[in-house]
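Dear H.,

Thanks for agreeing to be a second pair of eyes. The structure we're designing against is below in token form, covering all 284 positions.
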């Protein structure tokens, strides 16, 4: 295998430029990359080296699959103190920008416990509206908002035990279905104003997500099956952390295929293990 530049990830042709940094002999593709790398702080160097490694892995996946890769991976970065744990509006900007700049077929590598509903909806819409094919690749899990995004894809590649999850909205940590049912279970005068308003929001949120799921599925299956799947995912029949595995997704008519490309796991090795938050909604 040819050597790659630690700063830019390009292949080193010929001798390259060698430098001794912190006692290690490091090779660069050019004088420019050596100077740039030497000018970075320690964490910056770590980041540059990891990003170059990732770019090289992604380039290999793109070559193998004939696609362009976009990633949305919520896992702790080795050079950062805080966790990027959820789908937020910055993810939306990143993914939308990349999709708009990429007219080709896209592989979207998804690894997330979910997050902001609006952010997830915007990404899902952009995935569905993308002019070429979008394949969502789920090596481990894409819960909640992540599942919503996966529903928008032309195809989902996962493993037998990768999981999707229900997409019913959660308001203040409470499931929409449970909030709505509060109004049927208790006398109105015994429910606080706050909870009455919250359950009204829950009702609107649930209708909105159901309509979104129906729209995402309308060109992928017939209306009857789309209604069944939308009801299953939003009806509040299961806790928000219930794993929906490959076989279940397939039985509901989603276009799923087994076999995450090896390169995706190489990519995950460049992230920090252990400290990332899990998709944990119910505690047992
Ligand atoms: Zn370089």
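And this is the sequence the design step returned. I haven't edited it by hand at all.
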């Amino acid at each position: 295998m040819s050597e790659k530049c630690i700063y830019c990830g390009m292949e080193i042709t010929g001798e390259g430029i060698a430098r001794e940094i912190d006692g290690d002999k490091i090779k660069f593709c050019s004088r420019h990359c050596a100077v740039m790398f030497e000018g970075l702080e320690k964490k910056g160097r770590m980041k540059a080296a990891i990003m170059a490694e990732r770019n090289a892995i992604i380039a290999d996946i793109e070559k193998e699959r004939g696609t362009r890769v976009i990633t949305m991976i919520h896992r702790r970065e080795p050079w950062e103190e805080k966790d990027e744990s959820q789908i937020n509006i910055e993810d939306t900007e990143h993914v939308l920008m990349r999709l708009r700049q990429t007219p080709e077929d896209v592989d979207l590598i998804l690894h997330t416990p979910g997050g902001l509903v609006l952010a997830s909806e915007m990404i899902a819409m952009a995935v569905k509206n993308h002019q070429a094919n979008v394949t969502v690749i789920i090596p481990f899990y894409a819960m909640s908002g992540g599942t919503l995004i996966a529903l928008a894809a032309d195809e989902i590649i996962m493993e037998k035990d990768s999981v999707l999850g229900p997409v019913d909205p959660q308001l203040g940590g409470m499931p929409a279905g449970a909030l709505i049912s509060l109004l049927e279970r208790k006398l109105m005068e015994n429910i606080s104003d706050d909870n009455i308003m919250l359950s009204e929001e829950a009702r609107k949120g649930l209708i909105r997500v159901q309509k979104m799921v129906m729209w995402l599925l309308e060109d992928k299956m017939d209306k009857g099956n789309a209604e069944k799947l939308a009801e299953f995912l939003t009806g509040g029949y299961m806790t928000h952390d219930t794993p929906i595995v490959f076989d279940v997704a397939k039985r509901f008519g989603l276009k799923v295929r087994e076999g995450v490309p090896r390169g995706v796991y190489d990519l995950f090795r460049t992230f920090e293990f252990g400290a990332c938050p899990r998709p944990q909604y119910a505690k047992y």
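Two observations from my side: The longest strand covers residues 68-73. The pocket of zinc ion is lined by residues 5, 7-8, 10, 28-30, 33 (CB under 6 Å).

Warmly,
E.
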